[in-house]
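Appendix B, example 12.
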Amino acid sequence: MPEIRFDRYYNHAEIGELLKAYESEYPNLVTVTKIGSSYEGRDIWLVSVTAKDKGDHADKPAFWCDANIHASELSASTAVLHMLNKLCTQYGKDKQITLAVDTRTFYLVPRLCPDGAEWALETPPRIVRSSIRPYPFDEEDPYGLERQDMDGDGRILNMRIEDPNGAWKVCDQDERLLVRREPGDYEGKFYRVLPEGTFHNFDGLTMRARKTKEGLDMNRHFPSSWRPEHEQHGAGDYPAREPEIRAAVQAIVDRPNICGAICFHTFSGVHLRPPSRYADDELPAEDLWTYQALGDKGKEMTGYPAISNFHEFKYHPKEVITGVFDDWMYEHLGVYAWTTEIWSPQRQAGITDYKYIDWFREHPVEHDLMLLKWSDEKLDGKGHIDWYEFDHPQLGKVELGGWDALYAFRNPPLNFLENEVAPLGDWAIWQALCSPKLELHSTHVEAAGAGAWRIRVAVQNTGWLPTCVSKRAEEKKIVRGVVGEITLAGESRDPKGASSPDWLVSGELRQDKGQLVGRNHVTAGGFGWQVNGTDDMAVFEWVVASAGTYDVELKHQRAGTVRVSVQAS
């Protein structure tokens, strides 16, 4: 079996080979399924991980993880591959992982948008947001600056050009850094800063960025409050129009046992939660409390704070984003979903008090100096490149250098990669074990007179979450309750005919007992007035007139399935 490495990034073909190898090496745990094809026809793989001898994957509560919905966010794929490796190699060795794999199912999609990732893995990389399908138009922009590696060193850095009206000047504390020019600052040398690249149809004066032909953003493409292009850039023609997102949506809907999810992205070093378009006070309080409890554990296990999309991660204070994965999972399916943004260069540099998105608009020069020191000491100076002269074919004498953002910011540098992603899988496994879990509590058979028997079977939700998972799911009646069915052994569970079978005296063949609570609602105050009742239990009863063996199936689409045979005699 090829050894999976976590100090490199894999292309599409290599990931396919790795997944097949894991399926071959761990046939009792791993099943690889194709759920769709990308725009260019590449397979999109889903890996199911569960102990097959402990039950079918569909009969257990499940947790979903996907990655690389955005093309250049390659460490997201590494996070899912690391989790796959941990579940397989530690099964039977680690108590927590063994319990999780025995009793839960993990659905893992290591690379949801493979086409754009292939571009990102080129040298130099070609960077697009998500898919490489042209959108909204199929023609190239005839004007503007295209990012390119001009000097052939494999990097796309920055160009600085002396300009008396430039917005940047050399930092007093460290001449390698550029800082913003202050109002009223008219003395000294100033620079205009641009990405390294070349201009199309350059008139010698006008400088603007070239519009990217591949303008889709796949994480604006999910059905929840989707908005068209004129309201939100990159959203596509209609929800789930792109084959990659359609594959994910269909796969999730086809697996109603999914109780939670994480979509891995980069970068910021945070766990993002819904809602994205409205305030927390519009959430059911019970769901907000649960999200906060899950997030607190996430911070404890990973070091990443758990924050609100709406309150703490807006790209603009007057704008919201819609059509995102975690909103769809929570609002339409009623499960707790997260967007985990891997990697924080700021935190690596010792910057802890900062506001994620807002930081890029405004932060003190001291933070830049801390980042530069981090690059010098931890990245061997590869994060920030000293400026050097270059003879640009259109602009003449310029200087190249500054931050190599693709190396230091977009994904963790390779020597940081495994340590960064390893705790993320641990948190996902912990969340999976929070899911509802239907288990047999007891069975009882007693004589009911006149040759009849009373059969009673009780099941219990042993999970931390309720069987419906969230208050939103309960209010919207997204999932049905715990269902119990009885059959005489050997008979079909779906008998033909309108009348009940002769052996059934009382009790319906199929009974729905509603939702069962978990333990997430239990408060900290144990001062004598709290009653922990048995709302976590469902009791099913039937009276039968025939001796024999009866098969009872008790199931909940999220909490799993229990099957038991009882003897009436």
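The chain is about 25% helix and 25% strand. The mean pLDDT is 95.
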